[in-house]
Design brief:
Chain lengths: 205, 481
């Protein structure tokens, strides 16, 4: 096999093994950080954090019809719960067959659920699970209305990760699209949805 | 049978064309630039401090982050193999690139295979490092930067000057001017309000996003046990690029690995607070290979060495590979705030650049960068993964080639300082010799300093004054009390 070209893969791995010739000792990772939140009122924290990053928060499923009455053309995932759409009189676009990016760009809003929400950072996580649809659906329309059940809310980020399947496409959303690229001041509204509205519903009720 | 292969240095935009002091000179003299940098770094320092202060376990997170990264470096070959296996099993194709040129060739070939003559890009340090846009252009492929700051830099025919905010050196009025000059569809009455500028960028890129067939990204993290890639962003341009095109090519430095998906719980807390000073950045995307019916169906990962094996080979300098590109060290650095990013000549400016670039290229090729620091240590204090930047700077200074005159002077000084008698005599001599000169300078300028020494010592006084010995030493003064 003399003269056979070494693949980039084998050469890089060999270089890295040579670089570690000093055999660094094993590392114990100290995990002394908080993994569970002991705050008494997670929902109050969540609302504070969402509003701080310019999301609009509504309380109760009863808020939904009023909210949707302003939406002319609405995108929804195929498995959207029927009661969320009760009384909706506008143009409804189910994502089946999948709506093209251009078609999505023509719609006024998208209505979805979510997988997990982190109160500490005001972060909504979508995992393409029930009532969420594929990623493009919540990206292209300019307004995202997201229904959050209180049992989907956890305190800290480590708690959220344990509820997620890493193999699912994950989208973490903290407020509407924003940029800090001009003089490092945050302004809302660039390429993602410029309006993020959260409808909080009590899953215990 | 495998034989030992030596770690290799990298290529691309990581070398200073000019020594740092020479390159910094015009920047330091540019009052507009200094005002822009001062304003921006002051803003971000305050934001970071506020959101870090509200985290009671911040130090525990830093300790965990540093340890996870040290573990990654120790196990890098096996973790890379694990990542490759996981990502491949999930439907991605993994490629390996020894250096910048090889990485560019791979991306160009993949783009051509997809039949595209343009790509949309998510902001990525790795693709800046390997000068991918130039390589694509040479192959007749147009590369469109979609991050607002990258767009500003690209439209201005400029180069990035900051890791997080490549256009930090421009203020809003200058950005408006660039948009009006180079963005054909910019509104005629465009104001310099940041919201109006962001709106103009949205309109400018919208159609391009909706019709793009190939996207090129980097990755903030690559998870070995699941094969997941993570991109952290703000504007939604990342989501557009990572979701809508059919083909996605991600260029990832080999050091970006994390062992497990759970480790993200540390880094997704450390990064946004250190970087933009937010509790969480607006959007984080994670994908693992291909998801049928959702997002790109042709997914590629290019793992790049380009000098990282050389960094790994130095046990003292190795922690530079822990960097998560947050840029907190740039924002607190007094040298960066005055000189700006371009003076560092590399895509990695500031304190982290001063240790990373010379290690990626070999110290001889970036010998001035380890000196681009006052060793004040502010960078170490804010680093989310606790890279001891001052220690590595000093270590690299020892490796840098020193001019013969400096080496000779240090040999003499070392001989003098080895003996208390010789040292006291030398001080006496210096005082007597400099006495009249010191008195003269004090009368003329109010300070006992010299502005300019003759060659070769002129190199030392080019950017400093030389203090002359005081009329009496502290010991003499104490003796008289």
């Amino acid at each position: 096999m003399v003269g056979e070209a070494v693949s980039a893969r084998d050469e890089i791995l060999a270089r890295l093994r040579t670089a570690l010739a000093d055999s660094p000792p094993p590392v114990q990772v100290p995990r002394g950080y908080r993994r569970v939140d002991d705050r008494p009122d997670l929902i109050a924290t969540l609302v504070d954090r969402l509003e701080d990053y310019k999301a609009v928060v509504h309380h109760g499923i009863d808020a939904l019809p009023r909210l949707l009455s302003e939406v002319g053309r609405l995108a929804v995932p195929t498995d959207v719960p029927a009661d969320w759409l009760a009384g909706y009189a506008g143009e409804l676009h189910r994502d089946s067959p999948p709506l093209s990016p251009a078609a999505l760009d023509d719609l006024d809003a998208v209505l979805t659920g979510c997988a997990v929400v982190v109160a500490d950072t005001g972060t909504i996580i979508l995992d393409a699970g029930p009532a969420q649809g594929r990623r493009a659906l919540t990206l292209v329309p300019d307004r995202h209305i997201c229904v959050v059940r209180t049992d989907q809310v956890v305190g800290l980020l480590p708690e959220a990760l344990t509820r997620l399947d890493p193999r699912a496409p994950l989208t973490w959303i903290s407020g509407p699209s924003a940029t800090s690229d001009i003089e490092l001041n945050r302004v809302e509204g660039v390429h993602g949805p410029r309006r993020l509205e959260v409808v909080l519903i009590d899953s215990g009720a | 049978m495998s034989r030992p292969v030596a770690p290799a240095t990298g290529s691309g935009r990581i070398r200073t064309p000019l020594p740092f002091p020479t390159a910094a000179k015009p920047a330091v003299a540019d009052t507009q630039l200094r005002a822009n940098l001062h304003r921006a770094t002051r803003t971000i320092r305050a934001k970071r401090a506020r959101v870090v202060d509200e985290v009671p376990d911040w130090e525990a997170l830093r300790d965990a982050g540093a340890a996870i990264k040290a573990d990654v470096q120790r196990r890098l070959p096996e973790l890379l193999e694990q990542f490759e296996a996981s990502a491949t099993a999930a439907g991605a194709t993994v490629h390996w690139a020894r250096d910048a040129a090889e990485a560019c060739r791979i991306v160009v070939a993949l783009t051509q295979a997809a039949g595209a003559d343009e790509v949309v890009k998510v902001k990525s340090m790795a693709t800046q490092e390997i000068e991918l846009n130039e390589a694509l252009e040479a192959a007749g492929i147009a590369a469109y930067e979609t991050d607002l700051a990258e767009l500003i830099v690209q439209l201005g025919d400029d180069t990035p000057s900051h890791i997080l905010v490549p256009a930090i050196h421009y203020n809003r009025a200058q950005i408006r001017e660039i948009f009006q000059r180079r963005m054909a569809d910019a509104p005629a009455d465009l104001s310099d309000e940041p919201a109006a500028l962001a709106e103009a960028a949205r309109a400018h890129l919208r159609r391009r996003f909706l019709s793009a067939r190939v996207a090129v990204s980097g990755a903030n993290f690559a998870v070995a046990d699941t094969g997941t890639l993570v991109v952290v962003e703000s504007e939604g341009n990342g989501r557009m690029c990572l979701t809508l095109p059919e083909t996605l090519i991600s260029v990832v430095g080999v050091e970006k690995l994390l062992p497990t998906f759970t480790d993200l719980e540390v880094f997704l807390q450390l990064l946004p607070r250190s970087s933009t000073g937010e509790r969480m950045n607006p959007y984080t995307s994670m994908w693992t290979g291909v998801t049928p019916g959702d997002g790109p169906q042709d997914v590629h990962v290019v793992l790049v060495d380009n000098g990282r094996s050389a960094v790994l080979a130095d046990p003292v300098g190795r922690p530079a590979l822990s960097c998560i590109r947050c840029s907190a060290c740039l924002n607190v650095c007094p040298v960066y705030e005055r000189a700006g990013g371009h003076a560092y000549g590399s895509v990695y400016p500031g304190p982290i650049g001063a240790i990373l670039s010379p290690q990626l290229t070999g110290v001889a090729d970036n010998a001035s960068l380890p000196y681009a620091s006052t060793l004040c240590g502010a960078c170490y204090d804010v680093c989310p993964v606790k890279i001891n930047i001052p220690e590595i700077l000093v270590h690299l200074r020892q490796q840098a080639p020193h001019p013969p005159a400096e080496r000779a002077a240090m040999r003499v000084l070392s001989w003098v300082m080895r003996s208390p008698r010789r040292w006291a005599a030398a001080l006496r001599l210096a005082r007597v010799g400099a006495g009249p000169l010191g008195a003269y300078r004090e009368r003329r300028t109010g300070a006992r300093t010299l502005r300019r020494l003759p060659w070769p010592a002129s190199a030392w006084t080019r950017s400093r004054d030389l203090p002359l010995p005081a009329p009496q030493t502290f010991r003499e003064w104490w003796g008289k009390q």
